[in-house]
Amino acid sequence: MKGIVVEINQRDAVILAEDGLFTKVRNEKYEIGQTILIKKNRKASAKWIAGAASMVAAAAICTTGAYAYYTPTDYVSLDVNPSVEYSINLFDRILSVKAVNDDGKELLSDLDLNNKTIEDGVRETLDKLIADGYLSDDPGSGVVITTSNDKFDQAEQLAAELEQEVRTYLESREGIAVEVDAEAVAPERVQEARELGVTPGKLNLVDQLQASTTGAIDKEEWLAMPVKEINKTIKENRKESVDQDQREKKQKDKDTEKKDKDTEKKDKDKEKKKKDKN
């Protein structure tokens, strides 16, 4: 369980945990505002709060905790065709969820995800996607997740955790075969995607599509396409590229073989002429 350091002294530190309770732990050179992991089976240290130097001190701690809880630290987006984005705090709790397209608005109309963990929120979103027929046993179906944080290593860690969580959850659902991809992006990429009215996950996917072909694509048109269609086209383009490479290699091998035979014939003709002359 995550917690934030809200008070310290030489020996102890007071931690506000994600369940809203305070606990006192040994101060391991913590700093105010630092996020740490604490054991779930600890007891709330109500006595410490009651025995604080003053009500002002206690109020300050509570204010710090409230500020920490309601301050967004991470961005998460999820794309299938409905596209949604979650704003979460340092406790991995969802502060808000926003639809990025019309299908996303319809998807979220029956979901109340605020204050749930991002893992629970994503699972409920997946359940709705399955119920609405967006995810099935079609191998081309796909879920694209992106994460962002000012600290890129934390975004990468969250992306890896969510990718594993989503893979495991969907594998447990009968009749669901879906490709899952998760990636961390910089905050600047999130802003770039927002200016285009999409998620960074969809933007990255369309960039992969462009890279998979030598021709130009209509980026605006493809940004409106479902993940399934983009994935399908990327696979087709890559297969065509592999096939083309194989054809070129085969032709090159044939040309090399012909050249070697021509060279061998010329060498034999020279040798024959030389013998006839002698």
Describe this structure in words.
With 278 residues, the chain is α+β, with helices and mostly antiparallel strands. The chain folds into 2 domains: 68 residues, no CATH class; 157 residues, no CATH class. Strands 7-6-5-8-9 form a 5-stranded mixed sheet, sandwiched between helices. It has a 4-stranded antiparallel sheet with strand order 3-2-1-4. It is elongated, with a radius of gyration of 29 Å. The termini are far apart. About 3% of the residues have low confidence.
TL;DR?
The protein has 2 domains: 2-69, no CATH class; 74-230, no CATH class. 50% of the residues lie in helices and 19% in strands.
Name its key features.
278 residues; alpha+beta; 2 domains; five-stranded mixed beta sheet; four-stranded antiparallel beta sheet; 9 helices; 50% helix
Fraction of residues in helix:
40-55%
Cross-sheet strand order for the largest sheet? 7-6-5-8-9
Biggest sheet details: 5 strands, mixed
Helix-strand string? EEEEHHEEEHHEHEHHHH
Number of helices: 9
Terminal CA distance: 95 Å
User: Uncertain regions: pLDDT < 50 for 5+ in a row?
Assistant: 46-54
Mean pLDDT: 84
Structural class: alpha+beta
What does the overall shape look like? elongated
